[in-house]
Amino acid sequence: MRRPDQSQVQPWGRLASVSSRPLMAEPDPRRIRLAELRQRLEALGLQVNATPVGSDERNRLAEQFGEVLGSVLALAEELEAR
Fold first, then answer.
1. Across the strands, what pairs with 9?
2. How far apart are CA 2 and CA 12, in angstroms?
3. Which of 4, 33, 30 shows the shortest CA–CA distance to 19?
4. What is the dihedral of CA 31, 33, 35, 40, to 10 degrees?
5. Is the pTM of this model over 0.70?
6. Which tens digits make up the pLDDT trace of 16-60?
7. How many angstroms separate the CA atoms of 62 and 46, rounded?
8. Alpha helices, DSSP H only, in 3-55?
9. CA-to-CA distance for 79 and 67, rounded, in angstroms?
10. Which of 15, 43, 58, 73 is the most buried (most CB within 10 A)?
11. Distance (Å, whole) CA 53 – CA 61
């Protein structure tokens, strides 16, 4: 195995190219939540469309859809403002 050139080794023994890489930032939990809400919104939309028009179940699902949609829009707006 080839040893690194001494100019690449920093005092603590790590290669300069390895230690100078920027660390990956943790994902924003709000972005994760937004993705989850969008998936839920899609599923609710499919459920609403599969339920008979005028039924109590469809009304209940449509109400849930509206609530999730409001959450998606609010969170998307919050993230956009950053």
1. 15
2. 19
3. 4
4. -160
5. no
6. 555 555 677 888 899 999 999 999 999 999 999 999 999 999 999
7. 11
8. 16-19, 29-50
9. 19
10. 58
11. 11
CB 41 within 8 A of CB 65: yes
Give the residue carrying structure tokens 């109400």: 63
| Alpha-carbon span 34 to 40, nearest angstrom | 10
- 3 — alpha (psi -120 to 50), left (phi > 0) or beta? beta
pLDDT the model gives residue 5? 59
Residue 54 is given by DSSP the state: T
Q: Report how far residue 79's alpha carbon sits from residue 34's, in angstroms, rounded to the nearest whole number.
A: 9
